[in-house]
Amino acid sequence: MLLATISWLILNSLLLLSDIYPVDATPPGISRNSKCHDVCGSIPIRFPFGSGFGCGHPDFGRTIKCSSSGTLQFATSTGIYTISSIDYSTNILVLHDPFMSTCASMQNSGSFRLDYITPFKFVEEDTFVLLGCSTTSPLFDANEDLCDTGSGLHICRGLYSCKGVTGIGLEPNAPISTCCVYDPPFAVGTGVGSNGVDLPKLQCSSYASIYGFGGDEGHPMKWQYGISLQYNDSYYNDETCKNCVTSGGMCGFSGLNQSFACICRNGMNTTSNCFGRGYAWNGGWRPEMQTITSLGGILISLMLCFP
C-alpha cells in the first residue's frame, strides 16, 4: 500500500513537471528567431552579415538586410542600394545604384556617401567618373588636383561616346570638358570626401563607378559598373562565433546591449552554440529536466521491483 502511494505521488509529480517544462518547449529566457537566413535571393549570407536585424554582427546589422522580395540591400544616409555580389575571399561587396549612369543609360544621379562610422571603405581600384559637370564646378579649380587629366581622359571619351549621354542632355561624342575622373581615396573638401561624393555641391549631373573593364578598356559597354566596398573582417576572430558556426548555427545578437546570440536552425537563440538539442542549457532550466529524468528513473525502478 505504501509503495503504491509513493508511486502515485511520484507519477503525479512527474506529470506536473512535464506539463510545466515539456521536452519540446522553448526554455525560459531563450527566444525564437525566424528572421535569420544563410541566403538572400541568390547571394549566400555569412558572418559578419545577416539577413535582418539581430542577425550577423550589430555593426553590419544596421546597414545590411534582406528585403521581403529576397533582395540583399545596403543602406546609407543617401539611400538604399542593391548588393549584387559578395566575395568572401577578398571581403569585397559590389553595390548597384539604380540612379548611377552606365554606357547604356545615363540619368541625373543623387549623391553617394558612406556613413562616417562604418566598417566599410571604398576599394582603391574603383574608378569614379563625374559627368555633365558645370565649368564652374570646384572640380576644375586650378589650385586643386582632383580630376585625372592623363589616363582618365580615355574613360571620359569612352563614356561620352555612348548613346546614353543624351539622358543628361549631351550629344554623343560631346567635348569631355565637363567630365572628371578620379580614384579613391578621395581628396578632402570641395564635396569630394573620403566617405563619398556630393553631386549638388560639385555641380555635376551624374556619376558612374567602374570596378572592372571586362578586359577591354576601349569598349564602355563591356565595363563593369558598380560600387565595390571592402569590409573589416576582424569581427570573425571571436571563437564564440566560430564555435556557433561549427555547430550549425548563425551568429547574431539580441537585447538592448546587443549581446552575442547563436541562432540555431530550429529558431532557438542560445548564448553559446547549437550542439545537443539546438539551444543552450541555462542554469534555470537544466535542473528541472534533470529532476524529471531522475523521478522517471525512480518510478520505473519501483514498477520493476514491485509489479
Automatic annotation (TrEMBL):
Keywords: Glycoprotein, Kinase, Receptor, Signal, Transferase. It catalyses: L-threonyl-[protein] + ATP = O-phospho-L-threonyl-[protein] + ADP + H(+); L-seryl-[protein] + ATP = O-phospho-L-seryl-[protein] + ADP + H(+). One of its GO terms (molecular function) is protein serine/threonine kinase activity. The keyword Kinase applies. Coiled coil: none annotated. The keyword Mitochondrion does not apply. GO terms for cellular component: membrane. This is non-specific serine/threonine protein kinase.
